[in-house]
Amino acid sequence: MSDVLARPDLHPLRDDADWWRQAAVYQIYPRSFADSDGDGIGDLRGIRARVPYLQGLGIDAVWMSPFYPSALADGGYDVDDYRDVDPRLGTLADFDDLVAALHEAGIRVIIDIVPNHTSDRHEWFREALASPRGSAARARYVFRDGLGPDGSLPPADWTSAFGGPAWEAVGDGQWYLHYFATEQPDLNWDNREVRDDFLRTLRFWSDRGVDGFRIDVAHGLAKRLDDDLPDQATLDSLPRDGAHPLWDRDEVHEIYAEWRRVFDEYTPPRTGVAEAWVESHRRPRYASVDGLGQAFNFDLLEASFDAAEFRRIVDANLALAAASGSSTTWVLSNHDVVRHATRYGLPEPSAPGEKHGAAWLLSGGATPPLDRERGLRRARAATLLVLGLPGSAYLYQGEELGLPEVAEIPAAERQDPAYFRNPGVDIGRDGCRVPLPWTAEGDSFGFGPDGAHLPQPDWFGEYAADGQVDDPTSTLSMYRRALALRHDLQGAEELEWVPTPDPDVVHFRRPDGWEVVANFGTEPAPLPEGSVLVASGDLVGDRLPGETTAWLRR
Ligand code: GLC
Q: Where is the Glycosyl hydrolase family 13 catalytic domain positioned along the sequence (predicted)?
């Protein structure tokens, strides 16, 4: 299969400093991508063997989620050592080989940096535990005395993002802050040693040829914790306007200004993309040219499949990107959310603020009923629209196969701390992290020679890559065609809306006669004039069916 997909003519490595502005970036969740050695955990050699597939897909870059040594308390976002590779995933030599192979294939490499917290196995944290209160070792983290005469009560009633308390006692009256899992102690970014060590890490990987960094929880590093800690209700009520004690503080950008200076030591400059869950008007700060350079726009993760909503989000984000001098980013799926092929096949959430798909997952995939066909039809339409937009598109492994979320993972096999810390409320994110099906048959559907670390359902083979390669109507073929076309078509970062009489239809024009028309309704709409380059579903004569997108050239 790999050979069939190899199209070396497709992508010479773009060597200009702006390569990232309109890149199609493919997110690899390494433990679930491809396993070379049969331990059930995906690894670097597994990815290496799939470079021809990635090249044939037509992406410009990969972003690899953490591959560092880790106890996997949070899928690798609990890092033991920022400058090494988890032995289960390979060695630094394997990493170098992989980067060389990707570059050779014209694919740039972005890696995940997790600066908000280390793991509790990191040498710094072990040293902190072995050191007394007030020590330099503890000052790298956020330690506070507990309340009550013997310090047996937490310093504040804060809850972690995964549920449960955010403070953990260490046995001597002190507690440490972990905004995520207990195994993820938050770092103290007021500490110069912490700052310097991350600069060293950025150089370490940049020297090894890494092209850019995705910054985890980028809005959380700067914290202002006075002696009197506010309670959770106060934290929740405070505006996130730059002065909130924990989130999106203005001075976080001093950290990224330093990082930018490191990025700019390289040619081409290294890039950054912030995972910053902030008010949208504050996003440009992260994306600024003096800062990380780009920030994720997650608006589509929370949007309905709705023409007006998509249009509003496109306009808002193009304006935000222009405000920062950056390009915008589009995301429909990632390792933290229900896959979009499933989201779009479920009714809208019934309660405000409820995550789309959460109730369905909690019911083990029983209710509300999932319309899988419709989900896929809409997912393909949404993807084709997004790939036609200016800016960069971040794709999540498996979406090119139309892969749905897996709901039927037994409790005993779940791994996500969000599940364990929130019983009955949050089922966690394992359902989008199930190892990929490469072949319709065979052990773990071709993921590896011997099993998969999360169970794959029986129906996974229906989505296997090998069954889609030669089928021109498959989702994989649509992605390949669109990505190849996009490579040639993507010109200036401009878009002009074309008025449509039907409110369910969006139509826009890109430079050089490239047009994109998407029908969010269920009834067919007239297809504008032009030759069809690619469509997300079958076209019927001069009609664009419901829940379908087409690219045209005038
Ligand atoms: C980010 C990651 C998520 C992780 C969390 C804590 O949101 O995307 O997977 O659990 O940070 O590191």
A: 27-433
